[in-house]
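Why this split exists: single-chain examples teach little about how molecules sit against one another. For that reason, every record in the complexes split bundles all components of an assembly together and asks for one structure covering all of them. Below is a record exactly as it appears in the raw files.
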Amino acid sequence: MGRVDGEILLSVRGLQKAFGGLVAVRALSFDIRHGGITGLIGPNGSGKTTVLNLITGELKPDDGAILFKSRDIVGWPAFRICRARIARTFQLVRVLPHMTAQENVMLGRMFGSDPAEPARAAHEADALLEYVGLGGRAGQLGAQLTYIDQKRLELARALASRPELLLLDEWLAGLNPTELQTGIDLIRLIASDGITIVMIEHVMEAIRALCDRVVVMNAGERIAEGTPDRVLSDAGVMGAYLGADDAAA
Amino acid sequence: MLRLEHISVTYGKHEALHDVTLDVEAGRTTVILGANGAGKSTLLKTIAGLVQPRPGGRILFEGRGIENAPPHKMVAAGIALVPEGRRLFGDMTVIDNLRMGAYTPHARANAARQLETQLALFPRLAQRRSQLARTMSGGEQQMLAIARALMSEPKVLLLDEPSLGLGPRLVKDLFAILRTITEAGQSVVLVEQNVHQSLRLAHRVYVLENGRIVRSGTAAEIKQDTAIQEAYLGLSGSRPADAAVVPVRHTPGGFVNPFSRTVAPARRSSAQDQEQAMAAQLESTSGSGFFHPYARSVQAQASTGTPSPAAAAVPHSPSQPAVRKEAIPTSGGFVNPNARPAKQ
């Protein structure tokens, strides 16, 4: 890609979105630099998923700019944003239930940023399934996979579109502590391959282990930003999000 | 109070539960541990009548066999499930969702009193009583799902991953409420990935692996079990306490991204190769029989083995002789007993 670590990849400026009378995102600005892992945290209902939906074109903002590689992508349809190399996973998984795991991943490869023909897409899909831990499941229907395997499948599909920026929406939720460590390793590895990551996550252990920066939202606004250590010891963040006795954790 | 005897469940050719026998005592909290895919949700659905067990197994509730009863009879008998994903009536208000929980004749008679009780237990729901369920945050929805189940005045409350997707503060609130409920004598069967918090509530614990009960005991017994610690609590074995710990940035175990932007071998130092060779050697002698769930390719290429904790303790870089290198608490060593067998 020829991008330099630290260069601004995504810049969100004055983003605003309301649903009826509820302002879900209010005057939100932040920068995502190339090569890092940024955590987007905050209480349930604080607007985190709405931000992902705005970046990926699923929703249109009422106001503000989203600059990806210096181009304003506001108003672009979702498929075009995907082809510009932004991919995501969903909090409530959205695999295609009546297609096999392999076919789900092939879609990402065939209709993503660098479309491949089916034979090649199938071959690469198998490799990606192996990569996320679904090696033996290529022929199973999306609907037959367990919840966690569906999440792995979504990740493989997102990677198949060959993103520069990968947005993960609670990808580690629902894992037991041991499974969590495996998931953390996989995310770290994806980042080490040069993919910039923004992750919404409630698991503070993962945020501490992975993120170099954290943006904290509450009621649609950014209330803190910085390194995990600094942000997670911030009094406002503890009050709004962590609860008092996490101070020592 | 509730007893499962030799319960097996199959989905097509896949056996989700195999010969499960367990007891749920009145007034106690029973916690089911297990990896994802181990059969925990199937177990709760079977008790709730949503899934039929294979012939031969029995579910005894207060002495009566109920293994073939449909779900609505189970609710009437006193078994209520809070399903994974909540399953609220999204276009109904909070109050109407709660009233739906008291649908059985027995519960309907006490609905008004129960409504007061639940709104007192969950003050947030009282504030939001006229709001549509689907417009509430995840935490509020989870509280509503639990309150709705309690409206049926269940003798046993079944909870399937109630903390899923909740922020840290809400998880604390949730467990505080569960403690209040259980201390008031409510019998609970809890499936949770938040293992540490769940074990604090638990009286009795069953561990499911690949559909089988492999271990049971009191919460204290289960916490002491080192195999359980490694498999479910994310605690690796012994760690050299005196050594400084330097995290490895790239964990070299088994993942190969076909789209990797950087060529993997170029990034690997000879020291890493050495470490991996040692790790592979140690791993091959560990005899644990467990496989890293993401690392299928490890079996095929022993030279890129996952570092084990033992390997992590090997002095690493010549320039830092006094420093021990550990592959982040995670990278090696943890084993998933439920990992599917490696590809043939």
